[in-house]
Design a protein that fits this description.
With 422 residues, the chain is of the alpha+beta class. It contains eight helices and 19 strands.
Length: 422
């Protein structure tokens, strides 16, 4: 599986976020927003190359999503959605390089009952970084080891000046780049940022009578669901076992969709790691020394099972999902931790210590990603199919990057009393 497939999917999702409502008669209005960003990248490892001020240029293109008839938009406070394109200079072109970024985003208003000036912008996409770790020519940059990487950016914006078709704003934010554990070392690039930007484009005016009519039509609803997904991902085991191998996963979940927008649920997952299996079958050193009985059932000891809870927000055909899980069976992680957290001291390799931090990461899993649904989620289809791109983690440390295919069945829609009447 080529990693470029992840980024192709994310680009298609970004295109969908930008133009998903164009087929309706009542069209959204659009904006373009240039932005300059400055900041500082933290040192991810000892001896990391010195960096000067970070500098970025971004251009965002998107939609205001103020269609009166789009209830998902009104329930979410009429968020902006779109696609951001950017270039980042981390402050050391030779050793740390530049990043070229493609990032779908969503922006929501904060404190809307009191002001329309505060906004939270979150983007998740892909980047190409033109300088990376090399044991001979760039040994102290242990941030990224691949050219293609995941990228994440979140910003808090304040509109300083507002006119009919232009907003001038200042922002405070955070940016992250890493490869999702597909090659080591992968300490990641983390930056703290400030920005100045403007947004050009006149948002559609929503008449008060239209808002009132929409609220009168809106009803509370709930819908139980059942879902199945299957995925294939990639990761590496340690710097010594640094070739990419597959991770296969399945998951079952059930729960409730509330007001056609929010999905909450619980489920069970199972995973099989090729790296674990090969390490056991090849009878590597730690198998011989610590767990020789793993060789009797290599498939079982290369597997992982657990329970999870999930939350998801629907935006038309798009779903943004976060899962928090509990590993009930992951016996090989003890070996992985010792290998991946160890270090060479002189002529000897010292294994990672099985401390309290290991216990937490062995126990807690997490998953973050985006889905593209075949049918618009707001129509509450009985049957739906989705494609997903995700990062799976042990607590907050990347475990593997994944593409998934899934199916959702929704039971009968239950509607309750009107939320608004006058």
């Amino acid at each position: 599986m080529r990693k470029t497939e992840y980024y192709l999917l994310l680009f298609l999702i970004g295109t969908q976020l930008k133009g998903q409502t164009l087929d309706n008669e009542n069209k959204n209005s659009f904006f373009i927003s240039p932005e300059v960003i400055f900041g500082k990248t933290t040192e991810p490892n000892t001896g990391f190359p010195k960096t000067k001020m970070l500098k970025s240029i971004f251009v965002s293109i998107g939609s205001y999503n103020k269609k009166v008839d789009a209830q998902w938009s009104s329930r979410l406070g009429y968020p902006k959605t779109g696609l951001a394109l950017g270039i980042t200079d981390f402050g050391n072109i030779e050793k740390v390089g530049k990043a070229y970024i493609v990032m779908p985003f969503v922006e929501i208003g904060l404190f809307q009952k009191k002001t329309n000036r505060w906004h939270l912008n979150m983007g998740f996409g892909a980047s190409y970084i033109d300088a990376k770790y090399d044991p001979e020519t760039n040994p102290f940059n242990k941030a990224v080891t691949t050219s293609l990487n995941w990228s994440y950016k979140t910003f808090l914006y304040y509109d300083v000046l507002i006119s009919k078709s232009t907003q001038w704003r200042l922002g405070l934010g955070y940016g992250h780049y890493s490869n999702g554990h597909t090659r080591l070392p992968n300490q990641g690039l983390n930056s703290f940022l400030v920005s100045a930007s403007s947004s050009f484009g006149e948002p559609q005016t929503i008449l008060e009578e239209d808002v009132t009519a929409l609220r009168k039509e809106r009803v509370k609803s709930s819908q139980n669901y059942f879902s199945f997904r299957s995925g294939i991902g990639q990761n590496v085991l340690s710097e010594e076992f640094n070739d990419k191998k597959e991770v296969y996963s399945v998951a079952l979940s059930m729960g409730k969709v509330v007001n056609k927008i929010f999905k909450i649920g619980v489920g069970f997952y199972g995973r099989f790691y090729e790296h674990y299996y090969d390490y056991i079958k090849n009878d590597e050193m730690l198998i011989q020394e610590q767990v020789p009985f793993f060789k009797e059932k290599p498939v079982a000891y290369a597997s992982n099972y657990g329970f999870f809870s999930s939350t998801e927000v629907f935006i038309g055909h798009i779903g943004v999902e976060f899962e928090l899980g509990l590993n009930i069976y992951k016996p090989f992680y003890k070996i992985e931790w010792q290998l991946s957290q160890g270090e060479t001291r002189g002529d000897q390799y010292v294994l990672g210590e099985l401390d309290w931090y290991y216990e937490i990461k062995r126990t807690i899993s997490s998953r973050l990603g985006v889905k593209y649904y075949l049918f618009n989620t707001h129509t509450s289809p009985k049957n739906n199919i989705f494609f997903g791109a995700n990062i799976n983690a042990n607590l907050g440390q990347a475990d593997f990057s994944e593409l998934s295919l899934g199916y959702v069945y929704r039971f009968d829609l239950k509607e309750r009393k009107k939320e608004y009447s006058n």
